Amino acid sequence: MAPFWLGLALAAPANAQPVTVEIVAVGHVETPADRFELSALVTAGGDSDAAAAATLAKRKQDVLTKVAAAGAHGETRDGNEFELFATDPVAAMSLRGGAVGEDKTEGKVQASAIVTISAPTRAVITQAKAAITGMPGVKNTGTPLSSLNDAVPARRAAKADALTKARAEADAYSANLGLGSATLTAISEKSDISGMFQATNGKVPAFAMFQKSTGDVVATEVTITVTYRIDPKR
């Protein structure tokens, strides 16, 4: 890079005009997770719709009771409405279509539901998972995923980190061009698509599953485009 910068500096005339530079910077922060989630598939069968539904309702309630006793929160959805929380590909494929028709041992009619479990700590989510593992009709609990209840502070910290990096790059341009101070003139977040998930009430679409983490720390990255005007030395 040295010959490139040297060439730019030598090319700058004594009466140089202001230079505009557009810098893409990625801010990165790591925050302790305060929300842990997992999804369990609950299935039931019967000789009629009513029988299957009744068995499923009881099993869902049993799961919710166990989850609450462990200190976690659970909520249910029909099996045909799914969010891809499983990190195990096999579990993910099973969740993808619900369990209708998978297991004929309980009757000719099959029913399924997904129970999403959330907890404030890994210890609690681990306890909740252990409590429901092995229960009748419960499968594919997967690996707990971690996230943040409020991602805004982390995103703002990541933006601040991105701005610091962008300023350093602008100063480097100024020094290598033999120019003066750099003045911030514009910021764009158009390249930052993660903001579209902020209003989803903690429910991330399937294609965004990798926004979450399997560890105890959540990494947040924000990409911004920053424009500086670099003025000649006075």
Task: Tell me about this structure.
The protein has 234 residues and is of the alpha+beta class. It is built from 5 helices and 8 strands. Helix 2 packs antiparallel against helix 4. The longest helix is centred in the C-terminal third of the chain and has 26 residues. The strands form 2 sheets. Strands 2, 3, 4, 5 and 6 form a 5-stranded antiparallel sheet that branches. Strands 1-8-7 form a 3-stranded antiparallel sheet, with helices on one face. The N terminus is likely disordered. It is rod-shaped, with a radius of gyration of 26 Å. The chain starts with a helix and ends with a strand.
Task: Explain briefly what this protein structure is.
The protein is of the alpha+beta class. Helices cover 32% and strands 29% of the residues.
Features:
disordered N terminus, 234 residues, three-stranded antiparallel beta sheet
